[in-house]
Amino acid sequence: MPEKILLVEDEEKLRRLLQLVLSDAGYEVKTASDGGSAVRCWKEWQPSLVLTDLKMEPLDGLHVLRYGQDHNVDIPCIILTAYGTVEAAVEAMKNGAFDFLTKPVDHVQLLEVVKQGLEAGQFKTHHSGELLGSSDVMQEIRDEISMLAATDSAVLILGESGTGKELMARAIHRTSLKRKNGPFVRLNCASIPLDLLESELFGHKKGSFTGATTDHDGAFIRADGGILFLDEIGDLPLALQPKLLHAVEEKEILPLGANKPQPVSLKILSSTNLDLQEMVRRKEFRMDLFYRLNTIQVTLPPLRERGNDVEELATAFLSFFTREFGFPDTALSNDALHVMRTYSWPGNVRELRNVMERAVLKCQGKEIVPDCISTILPETTVKHCDDSTPCLDLVAKEQELLLTALKQNNWNKTKAARELNISRSALRYRIKKYGISKS
Question: At what angle do helices 413-420 and 394-408 cross, to 10 degrees?
Fold first, then answer.
């Protein structure tokens, strides 16, 4: 059965030409001339990939992209843009677009990017869209999801960077009987400038501030009837926390420039890799907001505590990337698996995925051996235990890195964690694990 592609382009001749190119390549193609008709087609037809122009009237490609974010998160969107709007296309990619192509479109490049997008979408469907791993701790996490999805209680998801907090939020949405047919809206509180964050949360009315040329629905309105996921909630500015508290408590929001509040019905999930209780103690996070968001708390385990999940995940990523890059089937040697099992994985599953992608590119169909893995992992050095078998002195290397970062930052744990690119809680875990002290 051919893959289905939704093509959105307001210029009729170009739309017809691209439709022929895609159809000749074996894809099933439907077209739309603006963002509104594209969303209607998307709802009815459920394409595998969306290819959309950026500048259209009355609703543009960002409207299409936003619908994809809110309802069909595993479907890749590719942006078409004229030469002068490349910056806007880059901004679209920051908001979830898979890639962008500039006009006039090179047909060979178009088919290659579409192929990559479809393969990435298949990977998300079969791997990234679920919490992989057969360890007992991950089985417990999956058992918790049904309980978390059964109520409208707020859920705070904790865990180090890369452990899968967003995947868990999406799993709760998929499992929720009440909310799964509604939108899933993710807002990253750390990535949006302060002067735009209030509008992105609560929306604004036309003319409410300079540059507000149209009404804008914030995340609360877009998530109405579904789930709002506040990612990196620990980075929410203190000045905005009272307004968020009111929205959470009263289930109503007041857009900038509006005269009366607007009710919303949604479930709120939030996540962070920061120690919110410590932030409350330091008066960097409101206690009342913390307790409102923390009705139910769940902590995702770091990869180093998940036993054989490292091998299971590595194998899944290896299989995907060999197919994506067109290399022959390959495998991880037993020694390479030993390297990966004993590595601390400060970046967790996200780091493991990146390492496997680079290893596949480096080995190009050959068996992946320790020397290949060790040159990619930042905290490992290879030594030889005997004349033939390489091994890793991971403990000594990790202790050395921890001590160096702590000493260079006068034992300030927050600064040391930032330098090591790990969370403060992960640093504390390692200090306790190795019995490191200042004396």
Answer: 130
